[in-house]
Specification:
By secondary structure, this protein is α+β, with helices and mostly antiparallel strands. It has 4 helices and 13 strands.
Length: 217
């Protein structure tokens, strides 16, 4: 009987400690030293990531731009008034984009709104056939993103991985699909990987806005 009571007491103590640990981890006012993210188990220093409130407030304060019909498809038909670039530690899962299920992912480390000239330049590049035409890797670990907003609400986002050499867009970018390769069996597939010109366009923008992503070793 005494042994049974000791077992019950021990179980209660373990349960109390476990619940306490879970509660502490869910406390939104606290941040762990590191947050493990992505399929590669990368550890992110959460003291350097941006919180939800900071990210949402920044949208409101960002400089506005006007749509430019000369940028090319699909951006020539999109109605947007802000373009913000993000540096983040993305992965195929769980963070393939900076906004997921209506919330910012918790691994964003930098943000910068684009001027009219910067927005036009990068959107024009991304809609150009000369930006694509190379192969891609099988993985996708994006670390750079562009989000277009209208009235402070996201209307379109693009995730970019220079290492994997391609982007994923919420809506199709026709220029990505125009250049094709043919296999020995006669099957076609699009060469949607960035060309040297395409990579340089992304690297140059990152340099302009003081992002370290894309710096060549």
């Amino acid at each position: 009987m005494k042994t049974f009571k000791r077992l019950i007491f021990s179980a209660l103590i373990i349960g109390f400690v476990s619940c306490g640990q879970v509660s502490a981890n869910r406390d939104p006012a606290k941040k762990d030293a590191f947050l493990t993210t992505g399929s590669n188990g990368e550890s992110i220093d959460t003291t350097k990531t941006l919180g939800q409130r900071e990210l949402y407030d920044y949208i409101i304060s960002a400089e506005t731009v006007k749509p430019n019909a000369t940028n090319g498809s699909p951006f020539d038909n999109l109605d947007y008034d802000k373009v913000i670039a993000y540096d983040f530690s993305g992965s195929e899962e769980p963070y393939p984009k900076v906004i997921k299920n209506g919330r910012f992912v918790p691994v964003i480390t930098a943000q910068q709104y684009l001027s009219q000239a910067q927005a036009d330049k990068i959107l024009s590049a991304l809609s150009s056939t000369s930006t694509y035409g190379e192969g891609t890797a099988a993985c996708f670990q994006p670390h750079f993103a562009l989000v277009l907003y209208k009235n402070n609400k996201m209307i379109h986002q693009i995730s970019i991985c220079l290492g994997c050499n391609y982007l994923i867009s919420d809506i199709d970018i026709p220029a990505q699909l125009l250049k094709k390769a043919i296999t020995e069996l006669g099957d076609e597939y699009p060469l949607k990987g960035f060309s040297k010109k395409g990579k340089n366009a992304i690297r140059n923008l990152c340099k302009e806005i003081n992002f370290t992503y894309g710096e060549e070793e």
